[in-house]
Amino acid sequence: MALADAIEQTKGSWQDKFRQLDVDLPTPNTYRTASGAPGHQYWQQRADYSMDLKLDAEGKRLTGRQTVRYHNNSPDTLRYLWLQLDQNIFKETSIAELTRTASPAKDGGDQISYGTLARAQALKDTQYGVEVGSVTDEGGRKLPYTIVDTMMRIDLPRSLAPGASFTFKVEWAHNIINQDIVGGRSGYEHFRDNNTDLFFLAQFFPRMAAYTDYAGWQHKAFLGRGEFTLEFGDYDVAITVPADHIVSASGELQNPNEVLTPTQRDRLAKAAKADQPLFIVTPDEALANEKETDNGSKTWRFTAKNVRDFAFASSNKFIWDAMGVKQDNPVGNPVLAMSFYPNEAEPLWSKYSTWAVAHTIKTYSKYSFAYPYPTAQSVNTWDGGGMEYPMISFNGFRPTTDKKTGKRTYSANAKYGLIGVVIHEVGHFYYPMIVNSDERQWTWMDEGLNTFVQNVAHLEWEEYFGEHRRNPNLPAAITSYMTSQGQVPIMTQSDSVLQFGPNSYTKPATALTILRETVMGRELFDHAFREYSQRWKFKRPTPSDFFRSMEDASGVDLDWFWRGWFYTTDHVDIDLASVREYRISTGNPDIEKPLERAEYRRDNAEPLAQIRNREQGIKTLLEQEPGLKDFYNENDQFTPTNKDRNKFADLIEGLEPWEREALARAEKDGDWVYFLDFANKGGLVMPLPLQLKYADGTEEFMMIPAEIWRYNAKAVTKMLILRKQVVAIELDPRQEIADADVSNNAYPRKIAASRLELYKMKDEQKDLMADMLVELKAKKEGEGKEGAKDVPLTPGGQQ
Length: 799
What we know:
Elements: H1 2-7, E1 46-56, E2 61-71, E3 78-84, H2 95-98, E4 111-113, H3 114-125, E5 131-137, E6 145-148, E7 151-160, E8 165-175, H4 179-182, E9 187-191, E10 196-201, E11 207-208, E12 211-212, E13 216-217, E14 233-242, E15 246-249, E16 252-253, H5 256-259, H6 262-271, E17 278-281, H7 283-291, E18 297-307, E19 312-315, E20 319-325, E21 335-341, H8 348-367, E22 375-380, E23 386-389, E24 392-395, E25 400-401, E26 408-409, H9 412-427, H10 447-461, H11 479-482, H12 500-520, H13 522-536, H14 543-554, H15 559-567, E27 574-583, H16 589-603, H17 608-615, H18 621-624, H19 631-634, H20 642-654, H21 657-669, E28 672-680, E29 688-694, E30 699-704, E31 715-722, E32 726-731, E33 746-747, H22 768-772, E34 790-792
Parallel strand pairs: 1-14, 21-22, 22-24
Antiparallel strand pairs: 1-2, 2-8, 3-7, 3-11, 4-34, 5-8, 6-7, 9-10, 10-19, 12-13, 14-18, 15-19, 16-18, 17-20, 20-21, 23-24, 25-26, 27-28, 28-31, 29-30, 29-32, 32-33
Helix pairs in contact: 8-9, 8-10, 9-10, 10-12, 12-13, 13-14
């Protein structure tokens, strides 16, 4: 195991933090080269889909018929195919449900929330999961299949040879979950106030599992966290929905004349060329639309070329706005940025959502590659969080409505939460929807990389982005996780990560920020990151491809960085333990002896009793009787002697000419020599950013590369020869290396400064008589059905 190898490499406690990573990475081959680029025999499978979908909005049910053409581009002969049935995760018998754990006991007793109880009731009331109607070949002949939890194996009538294709059909249906209650990445949201629904459907159809050169079939069961890796293909999808619905979907709308009014079509054409969002469906029109009753239906047709998945949203509540985007990439095609949202999301969404989509496309295309698709969409589907699919993202955050005044306002948290989540989810259109990493195994390859670029986009939106809620752009934000007991290496498989957010998002994003800003510098990093992105767009990279590409394109050895940040749970804590100051000795006793006297007096305090005697006016005998003075009262141990001078002359005579020149130069320059001791307390080797403050008031910044730790990863001493005297040294003054303990970063040590608030001591005691006199509130209709407050249970299980 790479982690074990990194910790125990030799006998004793010595560790080589700079041990080359190639000994642990997969051996390069004709599919994946040592440079990190795809090999000349690289291959991946392909799957093209044609689907007819029908949304039963009243019955909360989706039915589908699909034809899949699977292309075997591998060198292997296949006797069966594997498909993903992600909706099976909601079956009561699924691995995910059976292994769901309860929250730890709190305050000595078990507990259950209203939300947990409601979810269990929903799963009991409705049968969820994929109902497979038929599986046939292109000619209608039945194909045998086996369902294994969230996977389905189709046995082929004959082996599928390399280079061959196979077409099959699947008819299926499933009940749509109430996402508010059951959770998950898709479903429907019910609005109680006006009895309307908003549907957002994803991971809803049987999808081809990936067959890869590094893992064969990727058919690990879907447990909820490890998302998916899929095959690219073309989609042709017809979606039949109620006639009053507006539909957003992956791809381009093919039949606008059949589903849009002339006014909507005209607005859409104008929006494509607009430099700010324009309404296609206005808030007033959406409000009127959700109040109308239409029992008819419409079929919306979409095509999506070379994508790895398909998702859609449908509702009679949608406001729709759009604008054209010109990419910050000279070869980028125009993109139609769009947002779909209910009136409950106003005024926040019309102000920021589509602008955030456009900003993401412009920023990401600048740092990776031109966005290749014609549309990019943001759909409001819940009140927080987000999820991504090709060309469409489901995003949260809404304003709040004051119950008394009815006025709608939004907080800074909602504003920056919305902008941030849209940037994040639209950013996923690049990673992993185009750079097709395997999320089932390595979540950080899409979440971590994407969060890193998201943070770049944050600071190109505005300075100090999001400080109202938190600032994810500072490396210091990850230190509490990196020193916690629940940390696991970033390279841990997705479903085994204990603290998912910090491990999969924040820590890898912080690592890449440090790599860009501190270790490599922007020019080298941006070139290498862009090279990696372009190499692997529409392909499936692994971690080794990323590590190798970044080194190959930059010319920087980063094995120590990948090993420490991604394969271990070490953290950064570097102690500037001590600093010693010297001057170069000339050896000349007439110069050095007076300096030695001054240093002795500086370092040896005058006796306190002697000071007090002088303060009291007590005169010494020598002061009273000057005749007692002799040679030793005029001279001391620091008085130069002829013997000293002769010794110096002999020294100079014995030096080589270049040595005499160096000594003379030192006397002339008067340099200061400093020895800085650093202790690596956290285990993670890092560069040493130093801020030097000189006696004349000037300052200097210097960066010492991480390679200073290559001979000793626990403690090193750095010598500096400087022209000016230093009065203070600070390690990591810009907080750029995620140092967990900054109290030991300065020399001399800094005094920790903060503020204290006063408080009153008050013991609250229960007054049963007063409590009984409180007026009993009237019970409201429906009370107790919502919320997620904890309901304690007695040991017997009774509420």
